[in-house]
Structures are given as C-alpha cells and as structure tokens.
Amino acid sequence: MRGVATLRRIRTDGAGLLIAGAVAFPLYWMVLSALKPRTALEAGDPRPYTLEPTLDSFRRVLLVDGFGQYLLNSLLVAAVVVVASTLCAFLAAVALTRYRFRMRTTLLIMVITAQMVPVEALTIPLFFLMRNIGGAVPGLGLNHLGSLMLVHTAFAVPLAVWMLRGFVAAVPRELEEAAWLDGAGSLAFVTRVLFPLTAPGVVATSIFSFIMTWNDFLFARTFIISAQENQTLPIALLSFFKPDENDWGGIMAGSVLMTLPVLVFFLFVQRRLASGLGGAVKG
C-alpha cells in the first residue's frame, strides 16, 4: 500500500511539475528575450539561454518619452477600478444575499448573463456611448482616463458580485442577530462585522479586477485616441512595433516591466487569495 501511495504521489508531483513548467516557460522566455542582446534577437537566436545578458532593452523602454506618465495612468486607472468595483460589488452582494425583495433572482441572472457578452461585441457601442457622455460630462468622454475607469468598473462588478455573494451568504445569521442585540444598525454590521469576515473574498475579487484593468489594450486603444498624455502602458508598447522590423527586445522588456506590479500585488495578497478562491467555489 505504501508503494502504491508513493507511486501515486510521484505521478501527481510529476504532473504538477510539468504543468508548472508549461505555465512558467513563456514567462522565462519573455525575461530571456528581454536580456538577450539586440543582435542575437535580430539573428533569430533559438538558444534557451544567453551568455551575454544585457539591460539595453530595459533602458530603451525606460527612455520612451512619457513612460513615467503612462505608468502613473495605468496605476491610477487600476486603483480606481479596484476600489470602485469592489465597493459596488460588496454592497450589491450584501443586498442580494442578506435581503429579500422582488426580482432578486432576476437580478442575479442578469449579473451572470452580463459576463457572457463578448467584450468585442460591446466595443463599438461603448465608443459611441463614451463620445456622447463626453458632451455632458467631459471627464468621462473620449481621450479621458475616466472613460477607462467607468467601463472597466462596469465589467468588473458582475464577476465580483458573483464571487462575493458566496462569502456574504456564508456569514451566519446569528452574528447579525447578535449585532442587532448589541445595538448595531445595518451599516455598523456591514462595516464592522460583515466586511472583515469577507476580506478573503474582497482580496480575490480585487486582484481579478486589477489584472483585467492593468492588462487592458482594447479599451485603451479605442477610447484614448489622440491624448498622448492619457495613454496607458499597453499602448506604450506599440512604439516598439515598427513597420519594417519589430524591436522584440523592447517589447519583451516592456512586458516584463508590466508584469512586475501584478506579481508584487499577488505576493502581498496570495494567502488571502487562496482562501478567497476556495470560498468563492464553495459559495
């Protein structure tokens, strides 16, 4: 029996290593291409290593005109979307889970249905919507970061509501009754009891919102047309795509720099993220 269990564990570990290697290999190749000399990349060097690592590709990326502004724009949009979508989704999850009202089931179905609509099918209607909104609210029109914040928040809320619903439903009703007996109102219960207990779910939804917003290219390219100062990092990578020959070293170095904030954010919240994903599946 021990031999069978050991063999099964070896197979499981081996399969896990293979999957991890398959997932990590593109990241390794990205970093390797960013460190290879430009001449080696132009020559199509296929070797999975380099004996002459260089930071020239990173220097070219950091010297792009306005790179710091692009970075600040991406951070600003991502931060606003994470806070706004998480807050809206948490309050919506509380309303849909802790209170009973007419058409509650219909709203839940609408929330999950919103996730089924392809983003590409909504790009053109959203473009005209942002153009029309810009006439009434300039800060939310085309060429403004507010358009990206609004659209990404709208796309992040449905998934966040569905995930947080399980966490909110898992909080026992007895805690709410005890809070009422202690004189706490609805707002005090939600902010002082319910929110701390659902913190893993909040973290899980926030990281999904952050990644979705941080890596966005489609909406940034569609809504930010001529305002160079409001471009985001994914658009900055376009400067390394040339009509005659692409600067693959710059592209890969820029991709590495874009990946670092996501990894840092993930490292800070990884423990709560694991429990958050488990709670979302359970819910």
TrEMBL record:
The keyword Lipid metabolism does not apply. It is found in: Cell membrane. Residues 71-269 form the ABC transmembrane type-1 domain. It comes from the Bacteria. Keywords: Cell membrane, Membrane, Transmembrane, Transmembrane helix, Transport. CDD domains: TM_PBP2 (cd06261). Coiled coil: none annotated. It is a multi-pass membrane protein. The chain crosses the membrane at residues 12-31, 70-95, 107-129, 149-172, 193-214, 248-269. The keyword Transmembrane applies. Pfam families: BPD_transp_1 (PF00528). InterPro entries: BP-dep_ABC_trans_perm, MetI-like, MetI-like_sf. Belongs to the binding-protein-dependent transport system permease family. This is Carbohydrate ABC transporter permease.
